[in-house]
Amino acid sequence: MKDFDVIIIGGGVIGCALASRLSSYTCGVAVLERANDVACGASKANSGIVHGGFDAKEGSLKAKFNVLGCAMMEQEAKRLDFPYRRNGSMVLAFGKDEESTLHSLYERGVKNRAQGLGIISGDEARSLEPGISAEVTAALRCTSSGITSPYEMAVAYGENAAQNGAEFYFNACVTSIERKDKKFVVITENREKYIARAVVNCAGVHADDICRAYKGSEKMPEFTITPRRGEYILMDKTEGGRTSATLFHTPTALGKGILVTPTVHGNLLIGPTADDIEDKESAVTTSSGGQRVLAGAKKSVPDIIPKTAITRFSGVRAHPSTDDFIIGWAFDGWYNIAGIESPGLTCAPAIGKEAAEQIAKDMNFSPKEGYIAERKGIRAFAAMSREERERAIAQDPQYGSIVCRCEQVTEAEIVQSIRRPLGARDMDGVKRRTRAGMGRCQSGFCMPKVAEILARELGRDVNQITKFGKGSYMTEGYIDED
Amino acid sequence: MKELTCIRCPMGCVMNIEEKNGEYTVTGNTCPRGKEYAISEMTDPVRTFSVSVRVKGGDRGAVAVRVDRPVNKKYILPIAKAARGMVLTAPVEQGQKIAKNVAGSGADLITLDKVRPQ
Amino acid sequence: MRTDIIKAFSSPSDGGRLVIVGGGPAGLAAAAKARESGVKDILVLERDARLGGILNQCVHSGFGLHMFGEELTGPEYASRLEKMADGIDYLTNTTVLNITPSLEVECVSREGIFTIKADAVVLACGCRERPRGAIGIPGARCSGVYTAGTAQKLININGVMPGKKFFILGSGDIGLIMARRAVLQGGEVLGVAEIMPYSSGLKRNIAQCLDDYAVPLMLSHTVTDIREKYGRLCGITVSRVDEKLSPVPGTERDFECDTLLLSVGLIPETELLRSAGAELDKVTGGAVADERMMTSVDGLFCVGNMLHVHDLADYACKEAEECAVFAAQYLSGEKKRGKTVRVNCSGGVRYTVPQLLLKDFEGALSLKLRVGNVAKNVYIAAYADGEEVYSAFRRVVAPGEMEYLTLSKEKAEKLRKAERVEVKLKEKR
To answer: What average pLDDT does the segment A76-91 reach?
Structure first.
């Protein structure tokens, strides 16, 4: 039985950001993640937007952490080496009614202390973004908003935490939590037990289930999490230039609408839908979802070409019954960070920092000597200059061997992604860390080679390699096995 | 009368074949190979085909083999099954005979490619 | 040896250097023919560990009738082509990163980064398969969905089975071929669904890959759901589609399988064309080329499936050989473009290759084209400034089968001299 000071349940971007911050203190931290890797839930399938902070209701935790997180993001991206670009955003208004909503958003933004806001005319909007519709009559511009890569951000935080001694346990699905004396005993599906003085519930869409899994008598705050599915379509890099800013619809009673945004890697991303569903695991894509995403995106940018789509995906967001984040001690030893839906990604750095500070203070942790604040990512061949490439290959010839031709990912990067702390253990893990398989052929060419490298590095048979753990095997056996 | 698609070349002519007193009349073919194929389909339908065989210790995990002569269709699955029961060890040369009279078909299995040791 | 080649080609040329990108069938055929046509300074660049390209994994027969007059399997065909190109310098495990408009070819290999200044480049990088995302099949995002070509590589090169119980979407040739391959490797194939009312594969492949093994072909059907268990595909739903290709509610049929193979179209590789700034054809997805298969960039030629997707490797090779002769002429002669006239496609013709005719070109014209829909008893007609100069009767035309037209010198002349050239289908009166 392993004994820790703090057990974090959930290895999404929130759990990882918290683990990273907590690992700067003298305390034993464990992260229990039910999937085979970090960032496997909503953290891997969202818009990747760093919001300016004008959307959330004033006074809410969403508003507070959004503005804080947005302000921290550039520094965090530098410190932990994950992609971030301040590309600005525009909320597009189509007609008078929506224009008046823009004005209330602007005022809310000012109250929230969001930075870089301004309302511009339709023509001004089009002069900034020639691709947008002629029907746009006005726009709320926000120059402080940006884009990031959500899963790379989560991996960065996770690796930094691991670097500083936090322990990660995968395929560790928590089924019950008991109280024994002053401590918590956390039990997983595979009957492993983990002990800690405190539990932090960062279980995303399952946060309410984790509260229910607690067998003690203390009272939990009352909330439920509704799984809300958002579908996306990712377009080819040839389409990445259709807009430089992130384009939102004006929110209406029907929802927030569909956004169109470039990604930090140069693709175009459109989505999401917002469908409340029953099954928390149902990250499927649907035909109606795809149609709604395309129709919504074309409303903003009419020239979007559907056939340039390279993949579709969906994420299940954790919509809280309280409509706001649930953050704080539920009772002595149990800390909830629940209901982290949009703008949760933007908030993650600020939530992680503030929660860690509070937990450290209340549990009397002191700053750790030798804490490593910085983390370096994998050096991507595709992003190197010629001189850098020459040097990299001279040091490691595997940098001269291109495995993923679409994204120009080399064998060296794939090997590193597996060998690093918190290394990739499956195809999707390699993909999120290196972009191998993210391109226009969607791993058609590189899949056999990546599986081979994974098998070699992990010392496993190639038929044991999975897409994302569990039974998601890539192949079924050798051809001589009948 | 029976309709057939010729498989002798990528043109895929659609032909009709009719039997009268042991004599076959073929229509729709573009070349003599088509007629020959149509008649063989009625009397002794034959195929050539390839199967992959596992290779250990090579720079790749499989090599394809083919039957060295056309075999009656009824032998296809037994031959394929026999091939799946084999494992070769690198090096493998192109044109190597790896099995004789496989599954009693009269045909041998010939490798299509070489595999170098890893 | 490798380092010697890299060193030799990193130094300036004497003006007659041809770099061929891609060592598959088209690249090898181009290399052999270029040498035969007098080019001395030739280098073939191949990103894979060996020459032969996709042929190495195409273990079925059906190759070579037009090139060698006999039917060969892919690996045997590759060996023949390699023999033809024997002695020509090549580098495997070498990826071209970028080509500039002035034909500087930037390469990477384990030896490092190096740039080769070419005087002409033939691009023969082939094509890629359309993935699931391109057609937006709904359902679970699980393992067990592969393009047919990836499955082919797994089985024939890596020696592993992608699954045991297959369903195949799309009746392109690779899909049909893989149906038979899966059966012969001990798998079960539940069916092949094709969204169109006709197959896009060769008729003989339907006969010898599906009919022989009693694999049903479901025309006007598509996959409308994918289900998973523990992360692996465990079943799919297939629905009939209407004339607009939309699934018809109530026609759903569930299949329990562990693997879905996709054979839903091929798209030319375009990265290097884009890097050089060559004009692309929105319909073929490949380059816009003239009668020499030269792109809008001087000295940059493009052939095979990278120019437009062919029905047979043989045809890609023939095209590459024609191109190599022109590339040789280009290298030895005056390196100028010449004026062109564009071929406009309408009335059922989707595209032609070449897209551009050369005003001062002489000799017969070979025109390749594809139609948008199946049509019966039609003429394919070519017009010079509105006047019909050529027509060819076809009992049937289909999108899956490329049409090859050869126009005599006189007729070609009329088209080349015209202000406006049109190619379209004409009904039989």
So the answer is: 98
Q: Is B85 on the interface with A (CB under 8 A)?
A: yes
Percent over 70 (pLDDT), chain C: 100
* Chains in touch with B (≥3 Cβ pairs < 8 A): A, C
When CB atoms are compared, the residue of B76, B84, B112 closest to C186 is B84
Closest by Cβ to C141, choosing from A283, A447, A463: A283
- Partners of C391 in beta bridges: C381
**Residue C140: how many CA atoms within 13 Å on its side-chain side?**
24
Closest CA of chain B from A450, distance in Å: 14
Interface mutation vs chain A, best among B77, B84, B118, most A CBs within 10 Å: B84
Say whether A284 and C93 touch across the interface (CB within 8 A): no
Q: Are the beta carbons of C138 and A290 separated by less than 8 Å?
A: yes
State the Cα–Cα distance between residues A424 and A404, nearest whole angstrom.
16
Task: Beginning with the edge strand found earlier in the chain, give each strand of the sheet holding B97-99 in spatial order.
Answer: B87-89, B50-56, B62-67, B109-111, B97-99
Mean pLDDT score of chain C: 95
* In contact, A5 and A198? CB cutoff 8 Å: yes
| C338 confidence band (pLDDT: 50, 70, 90) | confident
Q: Using CB atoms, which residue from B4, B10, B49 is nearest to C184?
A: B49
Complex ipTM, two decimals?
0.96
Domain boundary among A305, A330, A362: A362
Give the closest-approach CA distance of C132 to chain A in angstroms.
7
Domain of residue A123, CATH code: 3.30.9.10
Residue B66: closest CA among B109, B96, B20, B37: B109
Active site residue A206: no
Domains of chain C: 2-128+267-337 (3.50.50.60), 131-264 (3.50.50.60), 344-427 (2.60.40)
d(CA A455, nearest CA chain B) in Å: 14
How confident is the prediction for chain A on average, in pLDDT? 97
**Total domains present in chain A:** 3
Average pLDDT over residues C246-251: 97
Alpha carbons A344 and A325: distance in angstroms, whole number: 9
Task: List C residues 116-135 in contact with A (Cβ-Cβ < 8 A).
Answer: 128-129, 131-134
Per cent of chain A over pLDDT 70 is 100
Residues 95-114 of C with CB under 8 A from A: 95, 97, 106, 108-113
* φ, ψ dihedrals at C309, nearest 5°: -75, 125
| Chain segment A208-218, per-residue pLDDT in tens | 999 999 999 99
Q: How far is C334 from chain A (nearest CA, A)?
A: 34
Q: Sorting pLDDT into bands at 50, 70 and 90, what band is A482?
A: low
Structure tokens at A414: 């794939």
Given CB atoms, is B69 within the 8 Å cutoff of chain C? no
Give me A408's structure tokens: 């120009």
- Any idea which residue has 């709904």 for tokens? C138
How crowded is residue C285: how many other Cβ atoms within 10 Å of its Cβ?
20
> CA A278 to CA A276: how far, in whole Å?
7
Which chain A residue is nearest to residue B85, measuring alpha carbons?
Answer: A480
Residue C217 pairs in a beta bridge with C192
- Look at residue C348 and give its three-state secondary structure: coil
User: Tens digit of pLDDT for each residue in A171-204?
Assistant: 999 999 999 989 999 999 999 999 999 999 999 9
Share of residues in chain B with pLDDT > 90 (%)? 79
Domains, chain B, in order of start with CATH, read 2-43 (no CATH), 50-111 (3.10.530.10)
Contact B84 A480 (CB under 8 A): yes
Assigned token pair, C274: 């884009």
Q: How far apart are CA C138 and CA C126, in angstroms?
A: 29
Chain C contacts of B109, Cβ < 8 Å? none
| CA-closest candidate to residue A198, choices A353, A74, A307, A356 | A356
